[in-house]
Amino acid sequence: MAVFTPLTQPQVVEFLSRFDAGALVSLEGVPAGTENTTFFVTTNRRALVLTLFEQGEHEELPFFVELLDYLDEHRLPVPGPLHDRNGDALHTLAGKPALLFPKLPGQHPKAPNLAQCHELGDTLGHMHVVSRHFPGHRPNPRDLHWLLLMHHKVLVYLSPEDQTLMKDEVETYQGFFGDATTLPQGALHGDLFRDNTLFDGDRLGGLIDFYNGCTGDLLFDLAIVINDWATEADGRLDPARHDAILVAYQARRSLTVAERDAWPMMLRLTALRYWLSRLLVVYVDPPAHDLTPHDPDRFRTILKARLEDGALPLPEVSQ
Fold first, then answer.
1. Which CATH number covers residue 247?
2. What total of structural domains would you count in the chain?
3. Half-sphere exposure of 38 (CA within 13 A, CB side)
4. Rounded distance between C-alpha atoms, residue 101 and residue 69, angstroms
5. Closest Cα partner for 127 from 72, 81, 80?
6. Total-model pTM
7. Does residue 315 lie in a domain region?
8. Which tens digit of pLDDT belongs to each residue from 46-103?
């Protein structure tokens, strides 16, 4: 159960009284989630999601509010947070920072079809066109600088072969991106896995959980998506899903020459990013709560596949 901070109905009734959201009808803890406490809140007027932030840098929460407000204003399918009667979104409840969101329609797609991949690519492309003008700034917390600093912490837990693999990859990225042309920048989701989307059939109901949101290379976001959405169990890329996402994405925003050159390396870098972050959770910094960590080997497999097979050709899109 991922309700780390229990709430009573009177607490939620008092919290809701600050908003123009209706009266509480029901309160239900959400078992999914690994970091924060989430409740489904039903009022006599609408369905809502209440999130209490259990960990992380709380001073960065205003960035996420501003980003979601900005994307919501530009008609992206994101849960724009509710603001109270004084115009404030961020509150404290049970001693934890709290935000209230509309409940978006749909379910996580476990095996996305081509129509869902096309929808996701189109929406991400639209988001990146819009997000290039977002005025906020938060450095990417899982970029190459983080890899350089953190990979040493897990080497002792790896086989000699994997130690060499990780060290060689980080050195390769440092050489490639250190000399590369600056890539197009903007606001990123930063963690757009399938379980951070909601689909109602083939219609995308929403992009959720922006708590890895930051500003940085737009290509970083796209590579995370391809490594999750278009990858088979053996780590190899599925050409149909790969092209469905990238054709739809590029109909919104064409990749630059520099991005096309960097694409194979960015697929590798983002695979290592998740291999490393999951190893850190298992061996170095386990979660504060009794939860099963994600398997690090999933992204070791993906990284090995990217090294052995390279990247698929990027589809050409006429504008």
1. 3.90.1200.10
2. 2
3. 17
4. 11
5. 72
6. 0.94
7. no
8. 999 999 998 766 889 999 999 999 999 999 999 999 999 999 999 999 999 999 999 9
